[in-house]
Amino acid sequence: MSLSINLAPLETESVATAETRPQKVIEFTKHISHLDTFQAASRLLAELKALNRQKIDTDTRIETLELYRKITHELGHDLEEVYGNAQVPMPEEANNYAALAEAIWLETGYGYKRALLDLKQKLINFQENKQHSLVILRIIESLKNEALVNYLCYTPPSDTLWSDLHKVYFHALQLGIEDIEVLDHALSPFGKTIHLVYIQTLLMNLANPQRLSKSNIRKMSHYVGSLAKFAELRGMGIIEKPMGVFLIELDSKKPPVPYLKNRNTPSIETDILLVTVEVARHIHQQLKYIQEAKTQTSEPLPASALEIVDEELLKHLIKYFGVTTSRAFARVEKKQAAELAIGLEAASILFRSTKRAKEEVRSYWEIMNTSPDGYALRTTNLHDLRISVGELVSVKESEHSPWVLGYIVWLITKSQHIEAGIKLLAPSATSVTVKSPSNNITYNALLLPSIKALSMPITLITEYGYLEENSIAEIKDGNKKSKLKIKQLVERSACLDRFEYSLIQEDLS
Question: Does residue 3 lie within any of the structural domains?
Fold first, then answer.
């Protein structure tokens, strides 16, 4: 396989000369660290572009890129604090910060890719394995960080990113350097290997980040660092249990796919397998440990358990790393307009009195397809729209249709439109208010009817984290007050909790 990777073109005649003297580069990084984040990142991007578009000595290029590493990661983190917390569609400022972060990681990758091709041309190189390991690791790290920007914007990584990722890893396999440890004194006391960082990049994609809230995408991106050692990469062979096995085509432009869903005949020469069964088992053990520790309220969770404590994220990762899931229902294509009201407050208004519902709480979408448990929707009406994965939504298919309740399970953003997946919760709801004895603040809530076909009892929808299992709450439905025992948490998203409950005392008014 030829190493034809995506590169910035050399522009020896028109490009400004990049600074490569180590002391001057260090002074520059110290200077921009005191600037406003966006200004500093813009200055860094300009320097990287200049460096990547001129021909210089390979060792000098690598040394200069290494000197930029610390400030690159610091600015990347600071930019992420803006776009990594913004709702979709992101406001202009967040979009600009995301575009700048993506460009910085793209240019960082360009620099190391140029160095890699230059190293291939060297006839004599006494540090060949050491330099190749460093450069290929840095390329994969840059692609991993570029992909994370995409995930936080709910945009799929490009075909070029996947192609370059697979090609440089395959090159490392050919050189036999995938397990050489590369030290990183600038950022960490621990070493890394090409093998493990490549797996981290794959796991980030297999986690289905379009189905995660932004906060959980960020948690997941850090968490995969501790998971990679439990995954296995191996060549093609007999597969006894295909669950938790993914096919990687190293000569393709595609992310890994579940082996059971692959339709092509695997190639022994260029295809490998990623096995994540042990990854899922490790997450399950940690989830169990956290759940058991939570029941011992007198004992704080140990530091090892606090690495990641979002139980819903752990359950999500077990689902996608452990068993290849299939759709419960087939999708049926449907082209029809629909109205959406976003959020619990909007739903409370609609289910209290549709006559009182304001036009402003609604947005207008096109139904792409439906299934018995949800919708896939698309909208180009992005003005004043703000949505998040996990957010409660009310959907109305036509003027004469009733409002039905659901929540957003995935988002994909395109240049001119947004796509969203909706999971249906109930065909109707009753608007109430709820108050916990431990908190005098009254919140909107919804009572959902029982669904006998699904053996689902009457349930209560509240804001995320407001109520706890085995607690007492008071609800008000019009002028009627009742006291409830909050029982099992049956569903949770990033924005809502759904509880079973039992009636303790009815009509306290």
Answer: no
Helix/strand/coil for 507: coil
Residues 316 and 278 in one domain: yes
Scanning the structure block, which residue is given the tokens 């180590």? Answer: 22
Whether residues 59 and 149 share a domain: the answer is yes
Q: How many domains does the chain have?
A: 4
Nearest by Cα to 362 from 396, 336, 334: 396
- Domain of 471 in residue numbering reads as 430-505
Assess whether 292 and 363 both reside in one domain: no
pLDDT at 106: 97
Residues 43 and 175 in one domain: yes
pTM of the model: 0.91
Give the pLDDT confidence score for residue 136 in this predicted structure: 97
H or E stretch at 426:
strand 418-426
Domain boundary among 396, 426, 456: 426
232-239 long-range contacts (CB < 8 A, ≥24 apart) are 232/274, 232/275, 232/278, 233/195, 233/198, 233/199, 233/272, 233/273, 233/274, 233/275, 234/272, 234/273, 234/275, 235/268, 235/272, 235/273, 236/266, 236/267, 236/268, 236/271, 236/272, 236/273, 237/273, 239/273
Same domain, 220 and 289: yes
| Phi, psi (rounded to 5 degrees) for 236 | -65, 145
Q: What is the 3-state secondary structure (H, E, C) of 131-189?
A: HHHHHHHHHHHHHHHHHHHHHHCCCCCCHHHHHHHHHHHHHHHHHCCCCCCECCCCCCC
128-152 vs 194-206: helix crossing angle, rounded to 10:
20
Residue 303 and residue 355 in one domain: no
**What pLDDT is recorded for position 231?**
96
For residue 159, the one-letter residue type is D
Residues of the chain with pLDDT under 70: 1-2, 12-15, 123-128, 294-309, 324-330, 353-360, 453-454, 505-509
pLDDT at 298: 54
